[in-house]
Amino acid sequence: FVNLGMHIGRWTVNFNGNVNGSPSERYTSHEETINSVASQEMTGLARRKNKAIQGNMSLGIFYEPTDRDKIGLQFDYNPNKSHHLSNSVTDMSSPGFNGSTSGSYDSHDRFHNFNVSLNWSHSTDNKGSLLKLISNYNYQSSSVVEDNVMGWSYLPNDSVYRTDSRNIYNVFVTDLSFRKVFNQNWNLNVGAKYTLNGVSNNSFHQFFKDGTWIMNPRFDYDISYDENIAAVYATANGRAGRWRFKAGIRGEYSATNGGVANYDRFDLFPNANLSYSLTEKGDYTLALGYYRNIRRPSFQSLNPVVRQVSDYTYTVGNTSLTPSFTNAVSLDFVLAGRFTIAAGYSMTDNPIRQMFTSNPDYPERLYLTWDNEGKDRNIFVHGDGFINITKWWNLYSSLTYMITSQKLSDKDSFDTFGYLQLVASTTFLLPKGFNLSMSCFYNSKMKIGNITVFPILNLNPTLQKQFGKHWSVSVGVENMLQRKSKIRTESSGYNRFTSTKTYVTAKIGVTYKFNSGKGFRMPRIEKNTDNSRFSKE
């Protein structure tokens, strides 16, 4: 990575870039499937190899024409290239039948992301009142080329097919706001925001027969749709003695047009937070909050491309997904400015969840997809804090216990379970310039839709040595315990248990740090793109 900055008069320019890759990542998965009704059993083994390389480049240009005005323009480019290979063997048995299948699933993924962000702000007085414009254009292009081969011990022919999928996303967001500061205790923020999402997904399929590639339009698709979101909002902040108050409301109109679940609706999203400082210093604080928000499906979860993971497991998006809405309340207690204890309750309508479904024509094929459930209810208790145990040892820990009640549809009853999540990191400052850090993540058994996820535990230690002022060397290990990830799903009478072993990852880093020239404060560009829409989930 590299980071360069230049400051001359009212101009500031900065450039940063990095490249990173994974030359080899390996996984081994075991699948055990039972259909008690049909007395059928399937045992599968899949070996997967992944490798990837990606880069990030960013150029920012900032100009302050007056003491009250600031202009910023930033360009970002992120390419990514990856290769995934899976080889699978599945043995099947049922009354009067025994056989096996084998497959090879090879995919090449290419991804390009270009982003332009514009910031402009004008200070209207000396109290902090500010008129601000944030605009953002994001272009993403991805392509996936897959070559798949599948054979059966009990059939004379193999299935050889390939797909070519291409996805393009054009996202434009602009936000104009005004923050009026009346005095040091009260301010008001009002604004308007518009988002246009233009999406294009297409996929083409071919199969190999008698030495010739033949087009297979039965599985082809070409889906394009636009999503328009317009919103106005207002937020008030106030303080009176030890009391602090924040309240806001957002009115939002959204509409889609094209090849997804079309909707045209207006919604209101209020929020409020009231806090009280138990001490004048403010390091002991009690706060009560309420909010209502919306979660829209990610672009990937809407993408109908079908990808084969193993002989009888696939992934596919769902074009019928609709947004989910959450109402939540929370109570927070801050202790000594470094510890937090919180509790809360939330209710979500139409929550978006990953789940397995099957093909009625081939029920042994399970598809990992997304769907809208009926309703979710959550109660949680949370605590986190940072402790300097000694001068050479510190610890951060976060612990959350949640009770979740979910039902797949309005006709079903609630299914309730609890789970625990622990995140911790600790650092030891050792003699002679060494330091040892360790991060830990634990998640107990939980359910997501019709998927049961068994406990997950990861430990990741890193040892670093400092040589003088400039050089440092680090050696790290991820997934040190090599614990298997285990999931169980039930669909169409099939009960499938999958365990995947992820091997240890070793990381070695050599860093040379230096500074040249006089230090200065680097301006920051604000972006307003909803990153959750691009998440891989």
How does this model look, in words?
With 537 residues, this protein is mainly beta. The chain is built from 1 helix and 30 strands. It has one helix spanning 299-302; strands at residues 2-8, 11-35, 40-66, 69-94, 97-123, 130-152, 158-183, 186-209, 212-215, 221-240, 243-258, 264-277, 285-295, 306-310, 313-316, 324-335, 339-349, 352-359, 362-372, 375-390, 393-407, 415-429, 434-443, 446-448, 451-453, 456-467, 471-478, 484-491, 494-502, 505-512. It has a 26-stranded antiparallel beta sheet that branches. It has a 4-stranded mixed beta sheet with strand order 14-15-19-18, with no helix packed on it. Strand 18 (352-359) and strand 19 form a beta hairpin. The radius of gyration is 27 Å and the shape is globular.
What order do the helices and strands come in, and which of them pair?
Layout: E1 2-8, E2 11-35, E3 40-66, E4 69-94, E5 97-123, E6 130-152, E7 158-183, E8 186-209, E9 212-215, E10 221-240, E11 243-258, E12 264-277, E13 285-295, H1 299-302, E14 306-310, E15 313-316, E16 324-335, E17 339-349, E18 352-359, E19 362-372, E20 375-390, E21 393-407, E22 415-429, E23 434-443, E24 446-448, E25 451-453, E26 456-467, E27 471-478, E28 484-491, E29 494-502, E30 505-512
Parallel strand pairs: 15-19
Antiparallel strand pairs: 1-2, 2-3, 2-29, 3-4, 4-5, 5-6, 6-7, 7-8, 8-9, 8-10, 10-11, 11-12, 12-13, 13-16, 14-15, 16-17, 17-20, 18-19, 20-21, 21-22, 22-23, 23-26, 24-25, 25-28, 26-27, 27-30, 28-29
